[in-house]
Specification:
Layout lengths: L4 H19 L1 H4 L5 H7 L27 H26 L16 H24 L3 H24 L2
């Protein structure tokens, strides 16, 4: 005595779920058959596409550490470091004071100040070399550029405040 088709549809849906659960053994059982589960997951081996050379990503360009760009950058670092030393020494000799707290301990003697600026130049080359060896070629060139900018600012500031 079904009054409408809604109850019939609901019964058919429940019957389909029960039958599907009966035939789908891993869902119906407490312990599943490992072969049945493994058989449902098929792994396909990825095959490389032959002839797609233009679509492969290019390897980063390798260059020698002391190539033309780095030689130019390191010589510019050395020149600005020498200019910074000269301006700092001149200002200290005329009664000025060192504003950089990292350099201030070395202002007691000319030799210590020269060793400080030479050490800074060697440190820039060393950090750049480590970045080169680790494959960070853009950062390798940015380290001397940043040092050149800071030394140029220091020289300009020192010359304008004599």
């Amino acid at each position: 005595m079904i009054k409408n088709g809604h109850s019939l549809k609901c019964g058919i849906q429940i019957a389909c779920i029960v039958i599907a659960g009966f035939f789908c053994r891993p869902l119906a059982a407490q312990q599943s058959d490992p072969q049945l589960i493994l058989a449902s997951y098929k792994v396909q081996v990825v095959q490389p596409i032959v002839g797609s050379e233009p679509y492969l990503p290019e390897a980063p360009s390798q260059h020698r550490f002391f190539d033309g760009k780095n030689r130019f950058l390191f010589s510019t670092v050395a020149m600005f470091s020498g200019a910074d030393f000269a301006v700092t020494h001149m200002n200290l000799a005329n009664g000025g004071r060192e504003l950089n707290p990292m350099v201030r301990p070395f202002t007691g003697s000319t030799g210590a100040l020269a060793v400080n600026f030479a050490g800074q130049t060697a440190g820039i080359v060393g950090v750049s070399y480590l970045l080169h060896k680790s494959g960070h070629h853009k950062l390798e060139r940015m380290v001397p550029v940043a040092n050149i900018a800071s030394s140029a600012f220091a020289v300009a500031y020192g010359l304008s405040h004599r």
